[in-house]
Each structure stands twice: as structure tokens, then as C-alpha cells.
Amino acid sequence: MNLQVQTRSQIHATPHPPFRGRPFLCSAQRRPCRRFAAAANGGAKFGLRVCGSSSSRGEELSKVEEQKKRRAYPFHEIEPRWQRYWEENRTFRTPDDDIDMSKPKFYVLDMFPYPSGAGLHVGHPLGYTATDILARLKRMQGFNVLHPMGWDAFGLPAEQYAIETGTHPKLTTLRNIDRFRSQAEVPVNWCPALGTVLANEEVVDGVSERGGHPVIRKVIWFGALLYFTMSPKLLITFSYFYLCEWFYIYSIIVDYEQPMRQWILRITAYADRLLDDLDDLDWPESIKEMQRNWIGRSEGAEVDFRVLDTDGQNRDIKITVYTTRPDTIFGATYLVLAPEHCLLSSIVSESQSKDVEEYKELASRKSDLERTELQKEKTGVFSGGYARNPANGEAIPIWIADYVLGRISWCSYGTGAIMAVPAHDIRDHEFAGKFDIPIRWVVVPDGGGSGNSERPFSGEGICVNSSSPRSGLDINGFPSKEAACKVIEWVEKTGNGNKKVNYKLRDWLFARQRYWGEPIPVLFLKDTGEGFPLPESELPLTLPELDDFTPTGTGEPPLSKAVSWVETRDALSGKPALRETNTMPQWAGSCWYYLRFMDPKNSEALVDKMKEMYWSPVDVYVGGAEHAVLHLLYSRFWHKVLYDIGVVSAKEPFKCVINQGIILGEVQYMAWRDSDGSFVSADSVDVSREHHQERISEEKVMKSGDSFVLKDNPDIRLIARAHKMSKSRGNVVNPDDVVSEYGADSLRLYEMFMGPLRDSKAWNTGGIEGVHRFLGRVWRLIVGSPLPDGTFINGTMATDDKPSMEQLCCLHKCISKVTEEIEGTRFNTGISAMMEFINAAYKWDKLPRAAIEPFVLLLSPYSPHMAEELWFRLGHSNSLAYEPFPKADPAYLKESTVILPVQINGKTRGTIQVEEGCTEEDAFKLASMDEKVSKYLDGRTVRKRIYVSGKILNVILEPQNVKAAIR
């Protein structure tokens, strides 16, 4: 079809271009949900509405007319038309079968959005737009592309919102998903108010992050160990986990009275592999370091300290401590036990029992993160008991303090007790100083230093004060590492301990006492309590419908209210049985979903082996840095389990991880006023009650150097700060409003142009106006200026003329730069290259089609709606989604000019730009006209010139007359 023979009315009457041609193979979307936030199918179904008050019809029309005047191009017509086309023709759908596996693949993945009732702000589309650009590029480069989209729906926030509103979480989740689509497409922490256990990261200052409810610490004790066998259906039903020997059941005591089952995953068994394999990943180093620290592998020793009776004699009780610094054992002047330590009741003296019980109660209300915070004030209580330091035989006091965490089971770190060495540990030093406990230096810096500093020395050095004839241990004068080895040999030889490798990583508490989560397909016989998996014939297991999903208040999960669902019978024996009423945590589904998208309709296995081998691993995974540890670590762990049992072929799930920065609200300018109401410069304010801040509007602000000042009084320096978008700050920018005013392509382009993807940056409405004007320039360059009635011609301004060498060089430099920058996820510099091309193209006399069509293809990953429209107007009947992406021709990338250094008497005095092959005479003429070089030549005689083509021009001058110079 030749577009240029159509009338304008025909074009605008067509709901989408009547394309024909090949089927659209392998692209972004796996299932029939709209893509997210302009990244989704190029910004699918943004709410393109005119926002305004419900005033009179005339006022509304006036606003519409004003909006039309501000539009740089007719995006309001283009974008809905192409979104409809993409959806109706399933342009970007990746087929489940019949994939040409001879082609290269590209699997790009996003961390899925959580469909909260609050909807979106303009920060949300950032990562999704970036992955969509990558997907479009790779598709056009001939790759099969898998770019799925979904929703993170299960979890505590959805359930709490449902409880607060009295609406079923299924309904609120679906409603919120629709809202998103309409836009932008173990010790445990027990919270009685929420009725569930919480992860440490969900507790802040002793209260739940969600709702601010008090959180109490509870105790784990060992329960039954269950084994399960491989089942493909069980894998699917369990959402992500094959139940093998790494899956345990435990009991948790709630309020120290009522037992409650808990499931724990033995992630510690994979600690070394999780550490070692980090080195091979193309991840941000900061993320890898966070995982290393979270796993916290350390080598040291477990050392036994004998508890003493009132006469100072050894009792048949020993306290085992773990230390990474055995070389400091002579400096241990006291022991510290966690408030949960199992030996506490056997050690506490009668006189101290009341104080200890009160302290335990206070400690139970703090999370692990609060207790181990370095900056917090140290608290503790003396137990009344003593233990013997095996290295020197001294009796040292036993204290209880919450900065030591309890070792309640094998899933905890350490032993729940430490040997405190206050001279060489900051926390021990602070504690000893507060409670007047002796401080003994046993390590000094290598190369000199005294042992009487007021601050602890935590580094390695030379051992001092570390010898005992009684024990036979002498490490004086030894370097720390060598001394540590000698201590370990000594404790093993004398039976006082052993070498130990330890981890901070704890096994994963996997059960939650809530309704809105994946159910666990396990039954327990009523008469014996024996547990076993649900038969495959009864899978998949789905949640029962509950009208009342509030916490029970007893510690029993809400599912226990579904009596008819809970009470069942074992299909094999016919005996009465009870279903598991705990559900999986909200992290559960996120550990496997990337695999299921490879083969979503398989009812016999988690994923077909051939498809998994083709698509694995995920090539690029983009999401927020807040998931650096838990989600990514859990996913890696689970993937390794699947690798070990042969379900997956790659040992790691995600080849490259990119953390996008956040988009902050617009910069706010604040000024200080004194008690008289006069402005005071921010750099001279002594913050007190006499001063208060006032927000200043942007039009009253100007920049002065690196600072911002008042226009009316430049001596008043302001505070300029951008904050995270939130309703409470009133700085949320709704993408609906942005798209309504500027279009989805402008939003996409601006979010990529703001700066590097990984950096945080502040929103600026003036910035999006700038990129909107750029797209308008592209439109007017190719389509032409608007007609008097505001419409545009049907075709384009492109001609069939052969492009000049200059035009081709300009085009291919742009192709090279854009391709390189997108592949390197440097999207902002790729946009700059396109802007340079358009600036150059506006100077051309003609617009050759052979130069403009490749540019439209370059633009398409960033601004797909406009690019599709321009491609159609250029006379093409098929979508450009699968057109080959332009390739730069090296012949046009070679520079035709070179920068030539110019020397005068051997000293470089400047540079000139010359054509390749420039003659010596021409080079000298250019040098003579150069402002910097010419002043050295004026009035001087040239003795000779030394010229190396393309390399250097050296002008040798005759010496000046000395006498004339003196005069």
C-alpha cells in the first residue's frame, strides 16, 4: 500500500494500519496481560484523558483547546491507534511452541510490580521502559526475545489492606492490577496485631513496618523432619520448591505456651556455593558484596568456657563460644549470653533472677537488626555467675546482653554466647566501659604501638600479654594469624574446643500465619500427627474462599477457620486428616517465576528441558536495589537446588542484574527565616528554635555557582533538595497526567534522558517539555509543519534522492552510537546522539529516504508509537517491530579530518583541524590563521618547516636580533 495516495480522512478513520505480511514471532509478552508503564508494548493503555475539574462544559473545552496548542505532534491520535494494533495482532507475543531455536535468544526480566491501591507514580516506569527498549533492540537484531510481565500479588500488604477494608484480598488484588493496567502498565518476630511472624527486615524500631504494631520475639524448638519425593505437579503447585531433604518442619512456641508449626529451608547447606559463584556474575559489585556480607562466612574456633560454682570449682556445664579471633583469647575478661540462651536458667543466681527475667522481656520486643545495631546504647544485666577462661584460668563474669543473638537451633549464627574482648572489639569496649569491666590489651599494631589507648584496636598485629604457664599456651610475639592457628591447635589438643567455619546466614523461615499466600499441600493424620504430601491426583491445591480472613488471635493461621477445607481424609488410607494451615511467605513465588514463563502451559513438569536449556539463564534482570539480598539470594539458592536435581541446566538464574535508580520528586527550595521573619543564608544558620524553614517557589530562585539563591537577594543561599515521591510530601507525579499532556513516548524518552539508568535523579517537568519538543522536531522534520487547521499532510517530506557522503557519515555515526549505548544500558547518551542527528538533518536541503528510514528504526525502541506511525507514513505496510535494526558501516565512521599538533621551535603551541592528506602548505596556512599559533609567527622569519602528514607540523624560526630585543 502506498500511504501517500490516501486522503487524510481515510487515515484518521482507520483504527489501525491495515497491515499484512508475516506472523509476529517471539517478542515481549507471555500471557494476555497488558505491559507495564510505557515499557509494556510501548506504553500500553495509558489513560489518555484530559485531567481537570468537573466544571462547566465550556471550561473543559477551553482546557482541551489549550492542551492542543501545547502539543508538539498528534500523540493523542497516534498512541491509542498503535496500542490497539499491537494488542489485536499480538505483535509482541512469544509463542509457547514452535520457537526457532537456531536463532539467538534474549531473556530480559523485570522485578514485577506490587499492585497496591495507591497506583503508580512516574518513578515506577523507569526500569520497565529500559527493559522494553532492550527487548525491542534485540528483537530487531534477530533474537528470539522473552520479556514477560506479571504481578506480585500474594503477601502481607494485600492481606492487611483487605482486613482494613473488609474486602477479600483476591478482589482487592485484581482491582489493583486493573488499576495498574489502566495506567501505566529460628527466633521469630511475632506480631499479635497482624497475626503472623515477620522477617527482620519487616520490623522497624520494635514495631511492624506495616501498621506500626508491637512485635515480640518468640522461641523455636526442634520438631519432626519430613522427606518428600520428586513430583512435577508438586513443583507447580508449590509455586517454586521441590520438597527434598532441605525442607524441615519445626514448632514455634507462641507466648511460650502454644506450639505452632513452622517450615524452614536449609539454605545454609548452600552457603559456600552461594558465595563462590558470585565471582562469575555480571552484577553490581555493591550487590555482590551485600550478599557476601549477608552470608558472612568466617573461619575461627569454638571454645568451651567451664561454668564455676560458688566455690570457684568447675561445674558440669560449659558455655561454647564462637570466635573469629582466637588470638585474642587472653583478652577475654567476661562472657555475654543472649537473653534466649538455653543455659541461662542454670547459670543465673537467685539474687539476679528477677533482673534477668525483666531484661529478657525487654529484649523480646526488639528485632535482630535493632539488637545488633552498632550505634545503639549497650544494655545488659549481670547473671551472678562466672566461668573460667581456659587460656589463663581466670574466673570471668557472665553477663546477659541483647547485642548477642540467641542460638536456638542450627539455623542461627554462632552459639548464642561470646567471649568479650573489650580491648579489641568496639561493642565489647562500649559495654565494658559502661559496666566497669576490666579491659586487657593482648594485640598491638605491627610496627609498634601501646596497649593503653582509649579506643579498641580491632585489627591484626602482634600478640602481647598472651602467655600462661598454667595452661601451657604461649603466643606472645606471634602475628595474629599465626597465633590464631596455634590457639586452635591448643584447644583441639586439650579438648577445649575445635576449628569451626561459620556463617551469618540463617536458614529460611518459610511459613506465615496468614491467609493470602500459596497453600502448602501437606496433610497430617489426625490420630498420629504423621505428615505427608498431598497425592498428585488432588493437585493443584487452591485456597478456600474465606469471608473472615482476620488473624485468629490464638496464633492459629486464618486458614484454620476453613474447617470444611482443613478437615479431610487421606486418599490412600481413608483416615481422617488435617491440611497444613500455614501458607508460604510473600517471597515464595518470586523464587521460581522466571522459569515458569519459559513454559507456562506445561501441566507435567515445571519447565520443559529443551525450553529451559534454550532460554536459561535470564540475560538481564532489572529491579530495585532493595531486593539485593533476600529475593536475589533466595532465588539463587532455590535455583541451585533445582540444578542439583536436574530440573535446570544453569547453576545461576540471572546472568546480569541491573539496579535502576529511583526518580525523586522535583527539587524543593527552602529558605531560613530568623525570629524577626528576615531571610538568613543557609550556610550561616545556627539551627535552633529561632529559625524556621519556608518553601520558595522555583520562579524566585536562581543558580549562583554550585548553589541556589534568591533572585531578589543573591546573598541568601537556599537549601535545594529532592525527596522520594510520597503522598505525605505531596510530590507525587502521576504518569496518567504526564501521558495525557505529553504522550507515552515523551514520558519514555524523558525517563531515559534524565541520566544513567543506575543513578537516582530528580523529576523536572521542564525536562519532559524539552524531550517533547524534540519529538515534535522529529515529527515536523519528517512529516512537515502543520497545516492551517492544525492537521498534517498524509505522507512525509522524504525524497528518493541519493544521500550525500556527509549525510551518510552523520547517519552511521548515529547508528553506531545508539546501538552501542542501548546495549550498554546507557540510554541517555543514545538519545543525545539522535538529537545531534536531527540538528544536523534540519540543515539538509533534501531529506533522503535512505537516511531517514534508518533513523526511524533507531528511534523505535525509545518512542515506538511515533516510529510506527512514521514508518507507516513512509510507505511500509508491516510493523517495524521485526525490521532489522540498522548496522553501522565502518566506511562511513572513519573521520575525514584529523587534529594536527603545531609546534614552534619544538614546543607545542596549539592544534589545528585539517583534512586527511592535507599538504604542508595548506597546513601552514591554517596554522598561520589560528589565533593561538599566529601570535608566535607574527613578524618572524621561518627557517624551515618539519611536516609529518596527519601527525605534526613543527615550524622552526630564525633567532631574533638580540640587541633589538634588548632595546
Give an overview of the whole structure:
The protein has 967 residues and is α+β, with helices and mostly antiparallel strands. Helix content is 29%, strand content 19%. It has 28 helices and 39 strands. The strands form 11 sheets. Strands 10, 11, 12, 13, 14, 15 and 20 form a 7-stranded mixed beta sheet that branches. The chain has a 6-stranded antiparallel beta sheet with strand order 4-3-7-8-9-21, with no helix packed on it. It has a 4-stranded parallel beta sheet with strand order 2-1-26-27, with helices on one face. A hairpin with a 6-residue loop joins strand 24 and strand 25 (576-579). Helix 19 (735-742) packs across helix 20 and helix 22 (805-823) packs antiparallel against helix 23 (827-841). The protein is globular and about 105 Å long. The protein starts with 7 loop residues before the first helix and ends with a helix. The relative contact order is 0.11. Mean pLDDT is 80; it is low at 1-57, 219-258, 408-412 and 963-967.
